[in-house]
Every structure is written in structure tokens, then in C-alpha cells.
Amino acid sequence: MASLRPIRRLPTPLIDSITYRSRPATHCFSQSCRNRATVGLDALDASKGDRERIVILGSGWAGYVLSQRLSAKYQTLVISPRSYFVFTPLLNSTATGTLEFRTALEPVRSKRKPNIEFMQGWADDVDFGRKMITVEESVVDPHQGKAMAEDRREDHSTGEVKSEKKGLRKEGKRWEVSYDKLVVTVGCYSQTFGTKGVKENAFFMKDVGDARRIRKRVLECFEVASLPTTSEKLREQLLRFAIVGGGPTGMEFGAELSDLVHQDLSKLYPDLAPKVRIAVYDVAKTVLSMFDEKLGKYAMQTFRREGVEVRTSHHVQELRPGLPRTGSDENMDDVADSQGCYTLTTEEDGDVGVGLCVWSTGNMMNPFVQKALDKTYGFPSSSASITDGKQPDELDTKEWMIEKHPKTGAIIVDDRLRVQLHSKTSPSSDEKPASSATMTDVFAFGDNAMIRDAQLPATAQTAAQQALWLGKRLNKGDLESQHFTFKNLGIMTYLGNSKGLVQTEGWLGDISGRAAWLIWRGAYLTMSVSWRNKILIPVYWFLNWAFGRDITRF
Amino acid sequence: MASLRPIRRLPTPLIDSITYRSRPATHCFSQSCRNRATVGLDALDASKGDRERIVILGSGWAGYVLSQRLSAKYQTLVISPRSYFVFTPLLNSTATGTLEFRTALEPVRSKRKPNIEFMQGWADDVDFGRKMITVEESVVDPHQGKAMAEDRREDHSTGEVKSEKKGLRKEGKRWEVSYDKLVVTVGCYSQTFGTKGVKENAFFMKDVGDARRIRKRVLECFEVASLPTTSEKLREQLLRFAIVGGGPTGMEFGAELSDLVHQDLSKLYPDLAPKVRIAVYDVAKTVLSMFDEKLGKYAMQTFRREGVEVRTSHHVQELRPGLPRTGSDENMDDVADSQGCYTLTTEEDGDVGVGLCVWSTGNMMNPFVQKALDKTYGFPSSSASITDGKQPDELDTKEWMIEKHPKTGAIIVDDRLRVQLHSKTSPSSDEKPASSATMTDVFAFGDNAMIRDAQLPATAQTAAQQALWLGKRLNKGDLESQHFTFKNLGIMTYLGNSKGLVQTEGWLGDISGRAAWLIWRGAYLTMSVSWRNKILIPVYWFLNWAFGRDITRF
Lengths: 554, 554
Known about the structure:
The structure is a homodimer.
Chain A: H1 41-48, E1 52-57, H2 61-69, E2 74-80, E3 84-86, H3 91-95, E4 105-107, E5 116-127, E6 132-137, H4 159-165, E7 174-178, E8 181-184, E9 188-190, H5 198-201, H6 208-225, H7 232-238, E10 240-244, H8 248-268, E11 277-281, H9 293-305, E12 308-311, E13 316-321, E14 342-346, E15 350-354, E16 356-359, E17 363-365, H10 367-372, E18 384-386, H11 392-395, E19 400-402, E20 411-413, E21 418-423, E22 436-444, E23 449-451, H12 460-476, E24 491-496, E25 499-503, E26 510-513, H13 514-527, H14 531-547
Parallel strand pairs in A: 1-2, 1-8, 2-5, 8-22, 10-11, 10-16, 11-12, 20-23
Antiparallel strand pairs in A: 3-4, 5-6, 6-7, 9-17, 13-14, 14-15, 18-22, 19-21, 21-22, 24-25, 25-26
Helix pairs in contact in A: 2-12, 6-7
Protein name (chains A, B): FAD/NAD(P)-binding domain-containing protein
GO molecular function (chains A, B): NADH dehydrogenase activity
GO cellular component, one term (chains A, B): mitochondrion
């Protein structure tokens, strides 16, 4: 475990010769601010008072939504490597210029919620016995805003990230902070299945930095393709966009990209738009497999009409920078001459040159869950209660572990979202069944957890429902008498050209086409968190309808 | 001169297996698009028809405004290393979150103006005899969006830029394009007076990438300062913001930063806001010296009340990464531990640790003007006419040069904005006066030019008035009978806390305070180019008034 460096306290800061004259009228010493402690752990403890401190690890759909729900009867402390929440369903729209990036973001720190404290850092370790979290600082962190596809300590990242890191220490300073209740909602990383070159060269779509990179690169491909020095062959490859993963995220990106090309870029680059090729690759035989057959067929028809090629049963083998090497064309195999293009290799099609490759094939367990929460502990008697009636004197002699799903590595929780423990059985005594226990003050949900024997989809809907349920229970204090049940509100996706799919189990049934698109937009507008974004999103929809998307590239 | 690589034309592009089905309804083959040629020089020539081609170098206040003004009777070709125009007076607002970045941007390519062609590249050379420009491509260019403080070929840039460049060739491909009329509006670079470390470490404020870096860094400083691992001493330095240059840009940034701190950050970080120090350094005895004394005094009072310290008669000696080295504190002098802070050294105050230093001390001549336009030419008889009645047979025996201001290096133009030539007199024959000539089809204005014997301010107002005047003359074809005269519409600046200064020579007179701020906002809203931004800017003003600035950092 990392050592804790206490905060150094200098006697009194030297009065600076540059004096500061505050404007009292606008300064905040009002009631609403009094609960906020921003500097130092002592200040945090002082402002906590006699409240319980709930520490939430992560600021995604699970952690952020819970933090918003918890009442001021708790001191809520969010610890996350990024300082904002991403409204992920709108990321595709921001990547293609239909919306501005910030419409998909909400800062964790907010004037409206002075009971929420925030520390920007990576959760590094947990001591369940002492009820302490170790945090590594991450404010000046080059990974920020980008999807993670591997442990940050195994740095295979691009040159840009590496050099930004130069001059910064490899590991941030650490500190410890105590909790009364702990919520593990760190989410998942992007899954690459170890495919060669993908971690380094693919464009992911998990965070706002990813969306920004994609938007910039797509527009850059058009600009390079329009240069008089660009050969017809390079032009073809610049304008070929590959998407790997036929789930809703990948398909929606294809649809939005097709809209951008047809509705806007075709007017600015009339000679280039017909050369554009958008292809979605998936290893499975179908895409959007969660929709029933009729809707799936409609989706395929719509994509075909929009020129989005769906290449199912394709196996990606590699993604590397530079253009495909061909014997006949010597100049083309130089990375320096490839204008940022990539070569995508599939078992079925061989090497194909692409302008960019968006990777969206699902989740990989978070290294924090995989490593930090994979230790053995003494029985945390202040936090856990035995579930299977073992004797208390047996407890001390056993080593305990967090129970995880054997395949996905997700934390197993009960239907109150409480983390489950089991005693470690030594290999020699495997006839003796393991004991099991429940952590009464450690919760986990969202993508990094799984309710025992329940197969809930790894979606924003699931995470948000769990967060709202847990928040309500904690506010009311009636957790013991309640159980979480998932209510499937349906699934939806955008297909491009103002058409969508909505599939519900309720009275609404299945809808496709323009009505489904309107429901899609309406649902996300309703769900968006702040009034700022509830106003901005329709303003941008209107502006882009009236004037076209903003194609400024910066 | 660089060699020209002709565009390779492959016989016929191989039909890709991924076929593309276009949506005819949304495709653009309408009248308004017919004039646009996007791919290749042949297409450019074909769409030119019998029109004259006006090539504009640069997309700032001079070049962009002219391109918007020119009618479709010309084929307008803008060549610029960046693909957009920056509405510079709003940059400070975007850097502090009062406005979104894109509200200060307009793309050069626009659906509304199909007669404007664009090529993204650096003007590299001009052949006045053949009427040809050599262009170096710059789409995938790491300098994009950032202020330039030196020739891009002398790369002293930060690690980030350098590594992004890795894998890209050091010089882009070049091509030639012909012009009928040429307009040199490449603007200026940022002046650092060779101050040590400034090019590498200062935050400039000329382009949108600069504004984005500043916004991110300011918010980052607060977040790092709030970490429990941050010492009181480091905190003090993180929250000290230095601005060098007491002109309107620097002072306005100080004012907007003070607003951000008082109006928003004070609520989110109540313990940190009182520790913030904002200081403006200037080598002169006064700041905002273009305003008359009464307004200047009002400005100083306002700044004082807002806690913006003005340190006149200060000489900056160095800006380096890391914190000031002090004997007593060994841990502090390590760059890796400085959390991105800098040390600013002035002759008067010695070393001071700062969170960031914004550099805004004026203009340096553009290297294109300084180097590429500093050659000797044979007399370009198709383009120039002798102004002082020399014999035509004398012309061929002389070497001609573009006339420049001896101190600033600005291109000297006549009151029709036409570039002036003078014959090169050899040192041995200095008794013989130089002949002079006027280029009839080469224009220069904005920051990189100077009307002979006129001292116009190097402002957006000057450049825009010149652009509008020249556009009108060229559209009407009455250049010969007209002269440009500058009409001083007054100067204005923002002082923070909803106060401003307006000074006009006309009936409006001098105004200070809230009314001046309203005029300031109104003027910029009126001047903003597109309807998109005319709608977005007040929407953001409203949202930030209602909900506070967006402090999301990404």
C-alpha cells in the first residue's frame, strides 16, 4: 500500500506584496455555501459535522446520478479522475457536430449542490477494516477526457500523451480519506480483446476527449482530401471510415457520420462526399442484436439506403498507422506520407486503408476492481455481516475476498447493491464450503458490478435506475426493507436521416422511423441534467437544422 | 524556391467493394453549389471560367472580411494555415467561460458563399513575374489553433507539439497556384522581444487553441490547489496569475478572469478565491495608454477594486517551468513537483511562482513577409507601373524589392492598399536615388502592411475597414478613382464587473461604467458574422447570467 504524505502546513503564508481586494457583494459566504469544504482534509472533516460521509468512486452514470440524488443529510464526497459527468448517449452527436461538446457534460462541482465535495484522483486502494480510501491525484493528467483501454500505469499511449507526461511524475501524490459508506461505481474500460494496435491507434467513444478527437479527425480527412497534393488513392483512403462494433454506440456513430456527410459536407465538398465509405465491422452475424427481428431488418434497410455498409462476421486482426503496403506503390507505404491514415486488417478483407477507425466493442473490467479489490482481508467486522450463519469465532481465522463474477470480473452484489464477500478456501481444503458475508456499508453498481443471479444490461439506464433507487433508500434510511428491481423502459437507437428505433415492453410497443427519432431526442432532452443543457441542446438542434452543423475544426 | 509536385492522377479509382448509395434528396447539386470546386487545381481552373481569381493569403480580420465581401464575379481563393476566422475581441470571453469557443469562430468554407474556395496551407513563396503562389500544406499541423511566436521551421515549441509532429514530415508537400490579383493579409506573430523562455512557456491569446489552453489551465490550477496533497505554498503560486502586456487584450483578460473568480469560482472554491492574485505587468509607465487620462484613471480604480494588480514599469527577464528555487525549501524547486507552475522573473520583483503567464505584448512581423517577400525581382511588368516617370528601358537592368517600413518590417502600400516596389540601389551607387513602382494587382493591408505616411492602429477595426473598402472597390471596379481613408469609430475595452470604457471622437464622446459595457457587448454582437453566432452569443450570455459559467474542464 502507498504511503500517506500528510499535508504540510506552513505556519502562516507570507503576506504577498500583491494584495487582493475582494468585492464583498459577489463573494459567497451565504448559507448555501457554508457546507462546502474545499481545501484540506481537516476542512472536510470540519464541514462534515455529525453527518455520515458517503464516498462515491467515479462520476459516470452510476456515481454521478447517485451524488445528485443524495440529500444534504450526508456529506457526499465524489472521487473521480475526471471532474465531470458525461451524458454518453449524446457523445455521438457531439463527435459529428450536431451538438456542442459541453451539452453532454455536467461538472461534478456545482453551485446547486453544496453538499457534494469533490476530489480529483484515482481510487488506488481501500482498507475495509479502517474504512479508508487511498487516492492518487490526477488533475494534471494526460489521460483525462479519453477512454481507457488499459491500466494507466502500463502506458502504451500515443506520443502526444507521453510527452505531455514528461516533466510530470509518473505517479501522483497519494492521500487517504475515510468513509462511513463507500460506493464503488468506477465503471469499465474499453475492451479491445488484445487486438494488435487497437489500444494505440483506435478512436474510442467513451469520453468527451474521444468525441473531440473524432470530430477533428473526420473534418481533417476531408480537408486533406481536398488538397491538390493529395492523390486519388490517398483521397479514397482518407474518406473511408471504419467502425468496429455493431452495438447501438457504433451504429449510431455511423448514422450520425452519414448525416454529417450527406447534410453538410456534401455541400462544402461536393466532389468528395460521393467518395465517402462508412463501414461497420462486427464479429457477430448480426448488429443491433438486442432489437427484435422486424426492427433489425428495418435498421439494416435504413443503413443501406444511407450508404452505411454493415460487415458482419468480420474478424479484426490489427490496426496500425500508415497506409496498406502494396508492391506497386512505393511512396504509399510510408507512415509520414499517410496523412494520419491507418491500415485496418481483417481476416476476411485483408488490409484496408482508413481515415480513422472508431472502436466500440464493449467493456473490460476496471483495473481498480480487477487489482485493488482482489486482495484478501481480515473479516471487516464493523462493515460486514455473515450471511450463512457461521460462528463468529470462525471469522478471525479466515481470509476474506470480494466475490466477483468468474468470467467478467464484476463485483457481485445482493439485491440491495451491497458488496458480497466470501472466505478464501485454501486449495487443500476444497471440500469445505466457503462462508459468505455482506458488506453493509460498501455498495457497488453500474458496469463494474452485477446483482447475483440477475442479468441486467450494462447500460446507462441500468446504472441510473440503481443510482436513483440507492439514493432514495439512503435518504429515507429504509434500505433493509427494500429490494432493487430493474424496470426495463425499453431500448432505442438512432439510425440516421431522422429515423430511429424504439422497442419497449410496455404499451408503447415498437416504433420505427421518424416518430422513433422524435422519441429518442425527447427522451435524451428530458434526461439531461442541468437547465443549462436543457436549453442549449434544443438551441443547437435548431441552429444545425437552420444553418447546418458547425464544421470549424480546432 | 520549392519544387512543385504535380498532382498524380490515377487512371480510374478501383471500385471499392463497399458501395455507396447516395441520398439524392439531400445531395447538393443545386445552383448555389455549382461554383464550388473542391478537388484539384484543374477543377479550380474549370470552375473559375472567365472570372478573375483573387488569392487571399490569411483568414484573419483582413483576409476573411475581404473574402466575405467579394462578389461572385471573382473566384476567391483563401489560402491560410487555419480553416477558420477568429473573432478576436471575444477570445478573452471564451478563455474564461463567458462564451463557448465556437462563438468566436467562423469557418472559411461556408454554404452561404460558394464562390469562396479554400486551401489549407502556408503561403511559402510568390513569383510576381509568373503570378504564382507556392503553398505548403498544413492540415495535419500541430501548430494549428495556437499563436505563433517564431517561424514554424525554428521549432522551439513545447513537448506536446513536437511529439505530435513525430511521424509527420517536417515540411509539408508544396504546390503552386496562379492568381490574377493577390492579397497579402497574413497578419503578425506574437512579439516576445526575445525574452528568455517566453516562446516556450507563455500562454498567448491570439487563436482559439490559446484560449482553450488558458481556460483549461486556470480551472486546473483551482482543482490542484484544492487537493489535500497541495501545500499552502504551492497553493499560493497556483493561484497567482500573471499577465504581461497592459494593452486592451491583456487588461480585458485580467478583467474577465477576475469576473470568473468572483462570480463563479468563489462559490465552488470559497476557501481558494480569496487567495487568488491577478497581476498585469507592463514595461511602460501606464496601461491602456490609448485612452485619455480620465478614462485611464477610471480603469485603474476599477481594476483596483476588482483585485487586479497593475505593475507598470516592470521588466520581464525570464519565464521558466517550475517553481522559484529557494534555499530553504528543497522539495519545491523540482519541475516535476510544481504541478505545471512557472517562475516569472522580473528585474523589479525577482522570481515569482505563477500558475500561468498570459503574454500579450503586441506584434512581430510575419516570417512570410520578413523572408519570402524580402527577395529581389526583375521588374514584374505585367503587374507593376512605375510611379516616378523612369524610362522603360531602365527597368530590365534593375533589381526590384518590396518596400517595407524600416523599423517594423511592414509592407508599405499606397492609399489604394497596393504594394509598393523600389529598385535596389547597390551600396556603391548610393548617390543615385531609387526608382519606385506600384504593384497594380498585389494588395496588402491589416497588421502586416502600412499605408505610406499614415499611422493607423494595428487593430481589427483598421483591418476590417480596409477589407470592406477594398472589397467594395474591387466589386465596383472603381479602385483607380478612390482612396482609402480610415474612420476612427472609437476604442473600447472591458474592465470587469460589468463595467467598460468607450472613447469616440464622434457625438457619443467618452463613456465609462455599465453603459460602456453594454455598448461593448452590443458592438461585438452586431459585428459577429454569422446568424448562428448572433443567436448563440446572447444565449450563452443569458445562461451564464442565470446559471454561472461552465467550469467543466476538458
